[in-house]
Fold this sequence. Notes:
Elements lengths: L3 H14 L3 E3 L1 H10 L4 E7 L2 H5 L1 H16 L3 E5 L2 H7 L12 E5 L9 H15 L13
Parallel strand pairs: 2-3
Antiparallel strand pairs: 1-4, 2-4
Helix pairs in contact: 1-6
Amino acid sequence: MASEDSCLVEAMMCARDEGRLTAGVYECAKIMNDDPDSVAFCVLAMDEEFECDIALQIHFTLIQAFCFDNDISIVRVSDAQRLAELLGDKAGQLEDAHCVLITNPTEDSWEDPALEKLHVFCAESRSCHEWVPEVSLPAR
């Protein structure tokens, strides 16, 4: 079985290629508000900025609560800059990669096996009382 980090990258790349990826705290909050049933997965990226930014911590707490209330699988990564690079932003133009959402595939497309593995990983983590498991992003 593939590791969680490779499944996360595969799921994000597939979603990006299919136009099902949203990045940014405010952009993600808008999708969650407008159509929560369309959200399949949430990634929160924490870094040094997170430690010093009370507003970002509050946003994360609210996003986590929303995900729990709406049965949306959620993971945490520790490097927002690396996450932005993986999403294809080599120039650093992606202003906010602190929150990334993957929306559900269309009904006529195949289910994403990497996303399914991530859902299983999150369910297993929750059964061990790890509510927001951390996934390490692969090195450059």
